[in-house]
């Protein structure tokens, strides 16, 4: 290590956050969101140190800067807001601030009664340097103040120069116009900024083949069109269909996932590809490409985007199998390897071999498929089991799509180990399914939400909470208890700004499990259902109400303004959403015990609201319409399973 | 992001530990220490993944490898031992193990009763690849086994090939000879390996000028020589002197740091430089360079190294001030800036201006000084206030010295904010002073030691515990209570493998403070003391005993084998040192209440010792010589302030 060529900075930036895996991955935001930056900054000795954030949009040529403020023990905090989609860059800059340091020492000596003529003179070159930085035409006040300060010193006017040099005004000027001499910069970090829907969305899932109003007829995209007003009225803005491609006929699965199907059984939509085409085709019984595009357009009118399922796997009769057998694993007997998780076999599915010799051909073809659908107007993809395809594949595919279409949202359907789910999120997935289905108790929910909203995960892993999916009929809902259905819906929709339901099944309380499994009996995955879409349940009404509240109040449009509140019952969960900036304050109290009434004393987070403890609060319950006044720090709540939650809008009484 | 040119690995290494600030800094070890490596490793899908550590000494041309074993949730653990001084490199390598994956699937299918002839054939190319990797001459058993396995498959001998392919033997062979196809590697990290003394040392500090046996005479190096047998007998292996250079005569400080000194007052040794020379000279009253070198040599015979104080600052009459005024801050009136911490002034000290225009000249001169003393035989430097000099300076200086002299130990005397102390340690300081002086209660000690021994700090920050120094007469010892002196010594010497005392002051219980400060009244920093070195106190006896125990048992030669043990009294601190590997087990119990007897029930850490709970234990107290048998999980202890600790050697009864 030879002596550096340039005089090294004395300032050190030892930590910058957020920074995911040493800056290897970008963090994520949506337009208008804040980036809170932390930095550990210090220098040797006792000199005054200054630091700032530098940030810019990829289209900017110049950096903007934002203050970093010293808290304690060399911890600095600051923030900035991202206003445009696509990449931002940020870094931290720090320096020993010679001018501020000189002023700080001068003030201490002056207060000590020392004669400081020499010190005043010492400051002259520092002040003259600062003077050069002030744009006289824009900030004449600062310029004039500093100019006369310099003149007082030059004139050896002790009293006037002492007064000016120790003034607050000078401090403000020196802070505003730092010379940044010998500054040091941190590495650069990146932010990917999405459109707002990436951070706030309500998903409704149904099988388009079950959309027909006539029992026994296969549903079509036209039938789906007719349901759009209903979905819009319920307040959903994403409509997600299982795959709409031709369904394989070879080894087609029957009712309840049986290995063979009877003639006429429709098969699983995830077994993609048949003589009617593959991933870029449409299942003939649903309609034509034109029908699908009409549906996309019609949905748009209702403020609804239709999410496409991206399931990169093939039925044995998928055209790829004949055209590109080299894209699959060929066994020693010449057959193509079907999917398996030994000893289990899935003969209706051929997985791609992403490592095959022609991997580049395969990857490019799959990218072509995604681009094709983007060109048809698809804006959201729900990606099926991304964790069974190489991570590098997704990183490449998503970044390729985002190059030209930064609006596209990818939801990762990976229900697997934490690090794998996180890796997918880091690589570019916009939103992710979560463990919400298996977090039921107060302790579980508190721990999980704390992890999601307060650790590094908040920077890259955007949760999307689903109380059920066609694959998951969770233990907790298998009893069919209506309170539990309401509780789980309420939790999903108020804890997470992104949430979704496998809709009709949830609304109508379908709950019978395949014995011993977290799956539905007679799952819609293998058969066509018929729904009476005109029917409304208490769940339907609740969903409409909650979605309305979510749309009206900003507090529910982010997942990251959550604070849990003390309440002295292990079955009562209380949480606050809101902040001083928006001025919105909501308190939710949920009775997690679906069998018994529960009572307790709740403490609203006065500190978060910026309201003194004990201020009288008006509590308007937007669920029941009742209003209470709370007079104390701890306040009584009682919840019966019949309406097992409060959603309070808080205002000063 | 265009398609990568090479087929990307499906394996992902997302975390490697230890890695300090993204690998920006090296970790530290001493010869013979273990490096425990953690990695987060996974791949897409369900395939079997394998991973290993690669490591090598800077002089090695080839990497060695060490196993990484999967624990749970993609967490992998492994370790290796460093055996030579200077830099090591390490990294992690991971891959999808196609052969192991094939065998694992085969076994599951076979156990399920499936006919697996095709699967056996599928394995043939994998096994043939492995066969090529086995050195037949060295490992003929593996080679022969695999060779015949291949032949069974080729001969379609179903039963024999099935037996061989599903065997444990084959698994062991596949693990031992992985093809590592499509592997991925983490970034490289570095370790600096020191000689053993960096990790285990006992320091004794005294002022050589107070070494004279005759009261009123200035002590000399020759007087110090006479004290070596005593220091060695007490069990210390580092003798540290405050600066031995000529002491400034201009603005010399008097008794109790008074601004002016009376004629004959010796001044502070930290005000370096006078007409007799500067940092490369010796204070004439101590002796000559020859005397100093003789002392170093003599000390070596006693197993003692003499640490030099590196205080990079100048008295006003230091030769540099005349020869190189450009190395200091020149004020606007032409005077040289003395040290200050406004409004406080230190007119006897001129700090260097490490940012002066001739900073390279200054830095090179200071490096020359250190090199000069290294050439005279100095092997250990205690660096005075390194945090008031630029971090980059130390990084450069230490690495320059270590290039040619990796034996040199630097102790950082920075009592300041945590991040600054850590930064200095990261930049290369071998050992660091700590907050030990201000950690007195059970909670404080437990928290601090947990931080030092279980967080990232253990990788780079080697604590050196000092109960007192010439600068610190801690509040806790100002009462002069003998029990507290014993307790603090015992804690320092048994909690930290590196410890030291400002010797005679501690042995003889000097404790009177300068009023209102954590400093000594009539501090030896400003005057010459006379000691009756023949005198021994209870402290002297305790020190000798503890140092003897530390030298005898490996358990006390590392700081990182510490476990706190439950004991139900807030003034009793119980901790274990030892491990299964050495087979040594020590339990310390300390009564932190120096005024009252305390009793409680202690639980030895049976799990750490690898001994079933409830095993009868023989507890030999090496302090009192008493022996007890403990029959239970929790065992009774009672400690009186008179002998306020146990040091138990544990063995099975």
TrEMBL record, chains A, B:
Any one GO MF annotation of this record: hexosyltransferase activity
RNA-binding listed as a keyword: no
List of residues binding alpha-maltose 1-phosphate: 253, 313, 348, 385, 525-526
Domain annotation Glycosyl hydrolase family 13 catalytic: ranges: 201-550
Residues of the active site: 384, 413
SUPFAM superfamilies cross-referenced by the UniProt entry: (Trans)glycosidases
EC number: 2.4.99.16
Entry-linked Pfam families: GLGE_C, GlgE_dom_N_S
GO biological process per UniProt: alpha-glucan biosynthetic process
Reactions catalysed according to its record: alpha-maltose 1-phosphate + [(1->4)-alpha-D-glucosyl](n) = [(1->4)-alpha-D-glucosyl](n+2) + phosphate
UniProt KW Glycosyltransferase keyword: yes
Quaternary state and interactors: Homodimer.
Biological role stated in the UniProt entry: Maltosyltransferase that uses maltose 1-phosphate (M1P) as the sugar donor to elongate linear or branched alpha-(1->4)-glucans. Is involved in a branched alpha-glucan biosynthetic pathway from trehalose, together with TreS, Mak and GlgB.
Protein name from the UniProt record: Alpha-1,4-glucan:maltose-1-phosphate maltosyltransferase
Biological source species: Thermaurantimonas aggregans
Classification lineage: Bacteria, Pseudomonadati, Bacteroidota, Flavobacteriia, Flavobacteriales
Gene: glgE
């Amino acid at each position: 290590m030879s002596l550096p060529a340039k005089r090294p900075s004395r300032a050190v930036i030892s930590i910058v956050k957020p920074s995911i895996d040493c800056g290897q991955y970008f963090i994520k935001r949506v337009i208008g969101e804040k980036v809170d930056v932390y930095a550990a900054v210090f220098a040797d000795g006792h000199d005054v140190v200054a630091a700032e954030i530098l940030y810019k949009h990829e289209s900017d040529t110049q950096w903007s800067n934002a203050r970093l403020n010293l808290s304690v023990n060399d911890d600095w905090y600051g923030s900035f807001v991202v206003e445009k989609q696509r990449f931002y860059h940020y870094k931290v800059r720090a320096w020993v601030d010679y001018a501020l340091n000189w002023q700080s020492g001068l003030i201490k000596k002056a207060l000590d009664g020392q004669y400081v003529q020499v010190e005043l003179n010492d400051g002259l070159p520092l002040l003259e340097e600062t003077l050069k930085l002030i744009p006289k035409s824009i900030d004449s006040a600062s310029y004039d103040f500093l100019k006369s300060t310099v003149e007082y010193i030059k004139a050896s006017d002790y009293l006037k120069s002492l007064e000016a040099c120790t003034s607050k005004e000078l401090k403000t000027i020196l802070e505003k116009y730092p010379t940044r001499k010998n500054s040091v910069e941190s590495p650069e970090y990146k932010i990917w900024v999405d459109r707002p829907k990436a951070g706030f969305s309500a998903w409704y899932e149904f099988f388009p083949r079950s959309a027909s109003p006539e029992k026994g007829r296969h549903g079509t995209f036209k039938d789906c069109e007719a349901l759009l007003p209903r979905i819009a009225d319920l307040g959903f803005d994403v409509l997600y269909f299982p795959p709409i491609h031709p369904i394989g006929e070879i080894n087609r699965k029957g009712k309840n996932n049986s290995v063979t199907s009877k003639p006429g059984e429709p098969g699983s939509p995830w077994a993609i590809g048949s003589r009617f085409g593959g991933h870029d085709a449409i299942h003939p019984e649903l309609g034509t490409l034109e029908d699908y595009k009409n549906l996309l357009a019609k949905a748009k009118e209702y403020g609804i985007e239709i999410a496409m399922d991206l399931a990169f796997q093939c039925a044995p009769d998928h055209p790829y199998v004949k055209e590109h057998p080299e894209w699959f694993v060929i066994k020693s007997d010449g057959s193509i390897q079907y999917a398996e998780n030994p000893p289990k076999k899935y003969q209706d599915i051929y997985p791609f071999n992403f490592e095959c010799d022609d991997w580049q051909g395969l990857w490019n073809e799959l990218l072509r498929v995604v681009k094709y659908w983007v060109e048809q107007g698809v804006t959201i993809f729900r990606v099926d089991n991304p964790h069974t395809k190489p991570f590098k594949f997704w990183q490449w595919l998503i970044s390729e799509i985002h190059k030209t279409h930064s609006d596209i949202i990818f939801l990762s359907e990976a229900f697997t180990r934490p690090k794998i789910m996180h890796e997918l999120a880091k690589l570019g997935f916009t939103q992710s399914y979560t463990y919400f289905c298996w977090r039921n108790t107060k302790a579980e929910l508190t721990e999980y939400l704390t992890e999601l909203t307060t650790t590094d995960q908040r920077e890259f892993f955007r949760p999307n909470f689903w109380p059920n999916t066609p694959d998951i009929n969770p233990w907790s809902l298998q009893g069919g208890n209506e309170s539990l259905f309401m509780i789980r819906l309420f939790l999903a929709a108020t804890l997470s700004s992104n949430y979704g339901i496998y809709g009709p099944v949830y609304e109508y309380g379908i709950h019978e499990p395949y014995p011993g499994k977290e799956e539905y009996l007679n799952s819609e995955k293998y058969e066509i259902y018929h729904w009476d879409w005109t029917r409304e349940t208490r769940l339907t009404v609740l969903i409409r109400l909650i979605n309305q509240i979510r749309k009206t109040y900003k507090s529910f449009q982010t997942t990251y303004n959550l604070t849990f509140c003390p309440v002295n019952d292990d079955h009562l969960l209380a949480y606050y959403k809101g902040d001083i900036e928006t001025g919105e304050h909501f308190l939710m109290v949920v009775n997690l015990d679906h069998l018994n009434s529960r009572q307790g004393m709740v403490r609203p987070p006065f500190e978060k609201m910026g309201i003194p403890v004990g201020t009288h609060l008006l509590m308007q319950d937007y669920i029941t319409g009742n209003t209470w006044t709370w007079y104390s720090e701890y306040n009584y709540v009682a919840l019966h399973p019949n309406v097992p939650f409060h959603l309070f809008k808080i205002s000063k009484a």
